[in-house]
């Protein structure tokens, strides 16, 4: 107590931000191997020179920085109530990166979603969205990182229950790349079958250096998928009465779906 061997209590003694740059595949739960990652100091968080870049989802399940204007309305569907053992999901992939790119910071996904009941099932009243970013090497192998419990995890994850989609843009902490929710009882909104809802999903901040030839995959699922580790969602809160049916992502001229990634350009010399 009252011991500061590093210098946190001395203003300017240590950098405001000290990043570990996750480049390459060093394996999982191997502290010695992770020493291969280099470090970089920054003056602030988020990094001021961040270029928040939209990667658009397409109906043919691609992820592209090109906003494709289309008058055609389409939707992609997947079953609700997926599990790790029986995942129900859609994946959207970039082309292989033509140049190295660093992704460091906060991420938000914007999706246009709806749900519909099964013909013989109850009428669902909500949608659970589980999103994941995955880093795929040129040979097709996914890079896994070390999770909190020492287990293999993907690049990052995010979640949203659509009845809690309301954000508070007037809150001082609200940002385009970090939507703020108050989560009060009055923030609960209805979710009606067939209605399309535009939602913003907070995704945990992360870091990766994507090398030439590698890809980023954006995954949308209806339940936990690989990488959730021991932190699975409680089945008692995910009943068939509430969620059973099909979930949909809608595409069209007024239904753009995208992931905003924090791209970091090199420091100017």
TrEMBL record:
Annotated Xaa-Pro dipeptidyl-peptidase C-terminal domain residues: 1-260
A Pfam short name: PepX_C
InterPro entries in UniProt: Galactose-bd-like_sf, Xaa-Pro_dipept_C, Xaa-Pro_dipeptidyl-ppase/CocE
Membrane-crossing residue ranges in chain numbering: none
Superkingdom of origin organism: Eukaryota
Matches recorded under PANTHER family: COCE_NOND FAMILY, PUTATIVE (AFU_ORTHOLOGUE AFUA_7G00600)-RELATED (PTHR43056:SF10), PEPTIDASE S9 PROLYL OLIGOPEPTIDASE (PTHR43056)
Protein name: Xaa-Pro dipeptidyl-peptidase C-terminal domain-containing protein
Originating species: Cryomyces antarcticus
């Amino acid at each position: 107590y009252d011991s500061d061997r590093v210098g946190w209590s001395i203003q300017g003694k240590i950098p405001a931000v000290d990043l570990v740059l996750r480049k390459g595949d060093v394996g999982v739960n191997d502290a010695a191997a992770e020493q291969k990652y280099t470090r970089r100091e920054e003056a602030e968080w988020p990094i001021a020179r961040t270029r928040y870049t939209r990667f658009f989802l397409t109906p043919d399940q691609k992820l592209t920085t090109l906003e494709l204007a289309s008058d055609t309305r389409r939707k992609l569907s997947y079953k609700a109530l997926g599990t790790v053992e029986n995942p129900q999901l859609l994946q959207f992939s970039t082309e292989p990166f033509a140049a190295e790119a660093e992704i460091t910071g906060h991420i938000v996904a914007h999706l246009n979603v709806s749900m519909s009941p099964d013909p013989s099932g109850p009428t669902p009243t909500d949608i659970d969205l589980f999103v994941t970013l995955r880093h795929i090497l040129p040979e097709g192998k996914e890079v896994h990182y070390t999770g909190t419990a020492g287990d293999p995890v993907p690049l990052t994850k995010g979640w949203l229950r659509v009845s809690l989609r309301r954000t508070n843009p007037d809150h001082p902490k609200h940002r385009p790349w970090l939507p703020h929710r108050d989560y009060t009882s009055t923030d609960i909104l209805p979710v009606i079958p067939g209605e399309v809802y535009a939602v913003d999903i907070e995704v945990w901040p992360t870091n990766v250096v994507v090398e030439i030839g590698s890809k980023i995959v954006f995954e949308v699922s209806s339940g936990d998928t690989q990488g959730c580790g021991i932190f699975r969602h409680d089945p008692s809160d995910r009943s068939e009465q509430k969620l059973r049916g099909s979930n949909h992502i809608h595409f069209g001229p007024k239904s753009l779906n995208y992931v905003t990634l924090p791209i970091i350009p090199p420091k100017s010399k």
